[in-house]
Amino acid sequence: MLHWMTTISIWMIPLLILSVILYGTMKRVPTYETFVEGGKEGINMSFSLIPFLVGMLVAISVFRASGALDFLVQFLQPLLAFLHFPSEVLPLAIIRPISGTAALGMTSDLISVYGPDSFVGRLAATIQGSTDTTFYVLTVYFGAVGIKKMGDALKVGLLADLVGIIAAVIVVTLVFGMN
Amino acid sequence: MVNYIWGGMFVIGIVFGMINGTMDQVNKALFVSAKEAVTLCLGLMSILVFWLGLMKIAEESGLLDKLSTLFKPFMRWLFPEVPPNHPAMGYILSNMMANTFGLGNAATPLGIKAMEQLKKLNGGKTTVSRSMVTFLAINTSSVTLIPTTVIAIRMNYDAHSPTDIVFPTIIATAISAIGGIAIDRYFYYRRKRNGRE
Questions:
Q1: Whole-prediction pTM value?
Q2: What does the pLDDT look like over A44-95, one tens digit per residue?
Q3: CB-CB: which of B26, B51, B109 is closest to A65?
Q4: Are A85 and B39 in contact (CB under 8 A)?
Q5: What is the Cα B101 distance to its own chain's centre?
Q6: Could you give the CA distance from residue B176 to residue A167 in angstroms, rounded to a whole number?
Q7: Cβ-based contacts of B53 with chain A (< 8 Å)
Q8: CA torsion, points B74, B78, B84, B87, in degrees to nearest 10?
Q9: Residue B68 and residue B87: Cα distance in Å, rounded?
Q10: Which of B137, B130, B115 is nearest to B196 (CA)?
Q11: Disulfide engineering: A134 pairs with which of A157, B66, B161, B194, CB 3.0-4.6 Å?
């Protein structure tokens, strides 16, 4: 099963490239020239992203390095214990939307400490796989096209993450039980 | 709202560092992460140039249009403000597909392209439009079929069956996507009631 899946994911990108180029050639599109023309846009885009990402990543890392993030997690712990939210995965749930690399590190840590087939290990894996780094996505997508007023986007994104995390807790409990 | 969160992270972080005696770490974090961010952008450049080039071929050859015709009714319901034959639809769809199949680095350029088109539709303003919020709501709930990274970690730690979390992940991600769309609609109608849209 896993073997199949890894094969599929390795083949997917080359096959995608193959079909785009074959289709383009069939339709008599000047493929190479079109590629170069489209690729040029990528250069400006990544340069204009720099201030957005620097601003966001520095703020997040200051917040994390000072210990404020850990404090926030500890502060919320009693409340979530009251709601029967498994407290071991709480830090992960808070960090997941903010920092993708930190969340990935935390997930592997939880899996190694509690075991991959434990409730906590499976829950951490499910949360990691079913949500995205909302802050990063927003910063990159809005930053690249120069949108400065995000409106309701951040609120909606974070609430959707919350729904996803609660759904993960419920589904994992139903499928694997609490042990 | 972003301004408050962004400023808040700095203010709280620095004040916390004073009290907590972690000023040294804060100092280090400042410069290390700024450098990391620039490295990240340069890393993104290679991906952006390649995929935007390739997608230009898909666009010119009409492959993208074909794709959007396939999912037209669904997309019209999701994005009522985008004209059904607008190029934005093709980009949004291909971004969603790349995400679904776990092609993260192909998804980002497509998403940016979609945002660019949505911005054009919004008259080039620097404010967010309804369709952009919907698009991001779907995007951040990241519908994934095969969470490859997580499976790899579980394999590393000798899970009995590394892929047994695939089913729960799909369900959870579907619920969060549906939740995201519902929350997005709720906020839209609230803005409308308050006469802001």
A1: 0.80
A2: 888 888 888 888 889 888 988 898 888 887 887 777 777 777 878 888 888 8
A3: B26
A4: no
A5: 14
A6: 7
A7: 34-39, 42
A8: -110
A9: 9
A10: B130
A11: A157
